[in-house]
Amino acid sequence: MKDWVTRKYTRECIAKNNGFKSQDVILQSGGMKNTGGCDNGTETTVTYDNAALKRMTVKGDKTIRGIGKSGVIKGKGMTLKGHNIIIQNIHITELNHHLVWGGDAIYIQGTDNSTTAMKNIWLDHIKISRVGRQFITTYKASTDSMTISNSDFDGNTDYSASCDGHHYWSFIFYGNTRFSMLNNYIHGTSGRSPKIGGDSAANVVAHVANNCWGNNSGHSFEIGSNAWVLAEGNYFTNTRMPLYNKGEEGALYVAGSEDECQSLLGRSCVPNELVNSGNFSSRNGKTALETIKSVPTFVEYTSDATTSDSEQQQEQQQEQQQVQQSAAGTVKPSAETSQSSIQASDVESMWGQTTDNFGVGKLD
């Protein structure tokens, strides 16, 4: 969406004088001719923290886990490079949020010089806020098994491309990527929440289930070419555009009253729920499900919104996943973490009640 960051839009944004500021842009190679979307820009001098542009590297077989609310990383994000990595109960914040290209919180582009997809990546009970660029970015070889769960992605900011205090640059999933987003709270954003596919080298298959989007002034899902997505059991409240509806590229199945999952996946999909929100509908839905079928963990997913038998099946599935993930480090999730009792419609209240750790729901 080029006109979100053009000089014309920025000037209109500034003219609103509504108490919010627009972002400036850190020039990339090529100077004013390569600003990443702005045209006819005016050069100015900006001040920023260089540390946010040089992320720390987290190699394989590592667990980084915060204790209580002391695990706050200010001014520096992470590049993950290796298999079997757990990032849990930390808050990444203050990454030059006044500047486009100011810093990504978590960046993944594979290992072995970006030629090999990383395995067993788990981002759980994390919080990300006040970033200059993306909360999470995947690229190149990326990861073929990543779960993003129980996390708080907070887009509230003083500086935004949409000039309304909502962060526009939220998630970009490019590369050869397979991932799940489960039980997360995404709020205060205005775009790319998430952006999946849209790059010629992308091959992204995603399962997005039981998340809550709240107070999002622009679009949430942006589905591009070479993306296949199943969205089920999600809750949208005060979200103007759950799906950016320009173009017909990519494949998205949005679970609703008519359930095609049973015939293609062998199970039912949980309908999404929208309150005071825009339209959210499938695009090339059958194609999406046919591709989702190739990923066993997506097919085997069960919702705790059904019977106690399915609850038990889900707990068993999660236990199996946690045994695999525990090889990444010394931390094995507690019993409470493994219980998937949070419903998407309750995520906002659960998040608000959580005081002892980051993310959604209790960690310990």
From TrEMBL:
<dbReference type="InterPro" id="IPR002022">
    <property type="entry name" value="Pec_lyase"/>
</dbReference>
<protein>
    <recommendedName>
        <fullName>pectin lyase</fullName>
        <ecNumber>4.2.2.10</ecNumber>
    </recommendedName>
</protein>
<feature type="region of interest" description="Disordered">
    <location>
        <begin position="303"/>
        <end position="364"/>
    </location>
</feature>
<dbReference type="GO" id="GO:0030570">
    <property type="term" value="F:pectate lyase activity"/>
</dbReference>
<keyword id="KW-1015">Disulfide bond</keyword>
<dbReference type="InterPro" id="IPR045032">
    <property type="entry name" value="PEL"/>
</dbReference>
<dbReference type="GO" id="GO:0047490">
    <property type="term" value="F:pectin lyase activity"/>
</dbReference>
<keyword id="KW-0456">Lyase</keyword>
<comment type="function">
    <text>Pectinolytic enzymes consist of four classes of enzymes: pectin lyase, polygalacturonase, pectin methylesterase and rhamnogalacturonase. Among pectinolytic enzymes, pectin lyase is the most important in depolymerization of pectin, since it cleaves internal glycosidic bonds of highly methylated pectins.</text>
</comment>
<feature type="compositionally biased region" description="Polar residues">
    <location>
        <begin position="335"/>
        <end position="357"/>
    </location>
</feature>
<dbReference type="Pfam" id="PF00544">
    <property type="entry name" value="Pectate_lyase_4"/>
</dbReference>
<feature type="compositionally biased region" description="Low complexity">
    <location>
        <begin position="311"/>
        <end position="325"/>
    </location>
</feature>
<dbReference type="InterPro" id="IPR011050">
    <property type="entry name" value="Pectin_lyase_fold/virulence"/>
</dbReference>
<keyword id="KW-0325">Glycoprotein</keyword>
<dbReference type="InterPro" id="IPR012334">
    <property type="entry name" value="Pectin_lyas_fold"/>
</dbReference>
<feature type="domain" description="Pectate lyase">
    <location>
        <begin position="21"/>
        <end position="242"/>
    </location>
</feature>
